[in-house]
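User: My instructor asked us to take a sequence, write out its structure as tokens, and then describe one feature of it. I'm not sure where to start. Here is the sequence I was given:
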Amino acid sequence: MNDLTLPVLRTLSQVEFRSGEALARTFGVSRGTIHNALKDLDRLGVSVVRSRGLGYRLDDDAPTWLDAQRINAAAGDAAVKFSMRLEACCDSTSTALLRLAREGAASGSVVAAELQTRGRGRRNRVWESGLGSALTFSLLWRFDRGVGALSGLSLAVGVALSRAMARLGAPQVMLKWPNDLVTQGRKIGGTLIEVEGDALGPSAVVIGIGINVRLTPALRGRIDQPAADLVEAGIDTTDRNAVLGVILNELVSALPEFELGGFAPFRTEWEAHHAHQNRCVTLLLPDGRREEGIARGADDDGALLLAQDGATRRWLAGELSLRA
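Assistant: Let's start with the prediction itself. The structure tokens for your sequence are:
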């Protein structure tokens, strides 16, 4: 993305046109520079209406830009427990936050980006997102627990996300072991947990979260699996500030609870929201093997429980799907 693209887009409105000449004066550049900043926007998932003689304006589906004050307002009393850093564009919010964590950033530090160019998912997958179409952010949380005592954290984070979705008006959004949000069998979001620290503690955890807010047709074409967004889930806002504030509110409530009791206090709630609970599933293991069985939830360590051949076996890694 051109360094000038986002600043120029922020000056445009959905109502009034702004001429290229006026924009050039505002930013102290040439009209040609403005033109270059606003070309190839389809690749970013943003549409600008262009009119000869009038200039530019945003179309009716323009994104709502991230704003720290609005995020804090949506988070309510929980806003005092985190500090917000907003980026126009970065490779990965988790990569940026890991750097800050190593420099001593405080627990509760948040990095959110308008556009993330190299977002990471599980198993080295790329998280695809467009400008303003997704919510991509990471939260740093420091635990007195050691690394080995954090098993099940991704599932507890999933419970916090499901609580947030319910508050936003989509209680039907479900969880898929170990770290996905789904609706009607399609992925709406996911988490990636990255941990650094000592075996006995303390430890620093960066929780990376991506949520599809409003997918454009172009972006859907780049995603390699069935995907959905908050609009399809029935949430009547595409204001990412409101969504992020509510999610952070739930996270800063859930994480101290996890510090005290691990995943066990979340287990019943997680199983109630597990999309594959008591269904025939296939577990694809990291080495390529497949295991089939009936999903019976998760144990207190967050391991998947599968009923197989008359016994219940626990699995710590893999990717889950419904069995045909």
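For the description part of your assignment, you could build on this observation: The longest strand covers residues 186-197. Try explaining in your own words what that tells you about the chain.
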